[in-house]
UniProtKB/TrEMBL annotation:
Residues 93-110 have a biased composition (Polar residues). It comes from the Eukaryota. Residues 1-21, 65-175 are annotated as: Disordered. Residues 65-92, 111-175 have a biased composition (Low complexity). This is Uncharacterized protein.
Amino acid sequence: MSGQIVSYRDAGTKGPKVGLSRRDRDVWHCGNRILKAFANCLDPDETPQNVASHQDQNYELLQSAQANQESAQANQESVQANQESAQANQESVQANQESVQANQESVQANQESVQANQESAQANQESAQANQESVQANQESAQANQESAQANQESVQANQESAQANQESAQANQE
């Protein structure tokens, strides 16, 4: 019936509106039984009628009550949908909070890694500087040894041993 209210006034007869499909006629009769039961609740002394009539003083009230019931049911369904949506939103917020916490922990770990890398780089620079100073000291020692070799032959043998030791030290520093 596509949500239309069909009454005797519309049909001009005392039966279902002419031209309705079988399904619509079944819905019409079912609706009339519901309206009749509701009318009996309002006025139980009245003899039940087969159909609700536009002449019935409660017809508009029954139509309004039926519309109110449908509206209440739609509202309940809307409330339920809203509650489900709110629950889904809460779950999404919780998941987002967990994601933020995981990201913060990852950032903290990255910062600690960067700090460790910076400390390692500083240690490497200090080691390189110490190696350079050691090489310079070895070069100065070699020069002193050469000058000492010219002055004293006995010192040459000692200087050769010292030079050999310096070469091994230099090789160890290169490794």
